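Quick one: SigE family RNA polymerase sigma factor from Streptomyces zaomyceticus, structure tokens please.
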Amino acid sequence: MRAVGVVADHDPPPTLTDLYRARRLDMVRLALFLVDDLHTAEDVVQDAFAALCRTYGTSLHGLQDPGAYLHTAVVNAARSVLRRRRTARAYTPPHPAAGAPVDEGLLLAEEHRQVLDALARLTRRQREVLVLRYWSDLSEAQIAQTLGLSRGTVKSTASRALDALEKKLEAGR
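--- reply ---
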């Protein structure tokens, strides 16, 4: 195997395979000293070799000193990793908005229970009209067809049912 370093004018440049075999471990050690993480160091070196291959191909023709190029690529990639780390560590996420009070679920559940209790005390027809209107989101015409009533009856029943429901809820407080 020929030495990989500065290429003399009469010697052909080393291939990418030659450079990889000769310098990979040295470059991983260098990257490890810079980024302090073996997996990241290996990724940095792999990316440097991949960039070298994309730019010059596997024969490395046109590259005066492949070892120096690789060294510079590893150092620059390690610097980029360190910059990203520093940015990530400096980021302070915004404070989350104050959440709902701890007992809000309990209060809401109690309010729902009170509404359901008051609804149960309505007449069957009033309860049906309100449930179809506000739970099933049906129109007056759809409710009238479903219950076999006139549209006017549905309208007046809904109005009376809401009044009765409101009174029952106020009485329960």
